[in-house]
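This section describes the prediction task in plain terms. A model, or a person checking by hand, is given the sequence of a single protein chain and must write out its three-dimensional structure as a string of tokens. No templates, partner chains or ligands are provided. The sample shown here is typical of the held-out split.
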Amino acid sequence: MISVSTATFQPLFFPQSTVVKPDTEYTADLKVSYGDHWIEEWTINPYVDLFWSIGGSSTVVLAMTGDTGVCRLALRQATPLSW
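The expected answer:
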């Protein structure tokens, strides 16, 4: 079964108390996963996690600002293996 685990769009505001206040960063995050249950005792549950910084300052020091992103392809083992 394919499902959307996370779908967000959010502004990240920085504290007002900083001397040089960064611009508000706008980000989008989408995680799509697949629940595989072919073998009852063992599943790998692959997923894709897309994170995109649309605009504004970066939340990471010395990182590029706006229009940057990350794509993660991963497996999440749902059932512990026992040997």
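For orientation: The chain has a mean pLDDT of 77.
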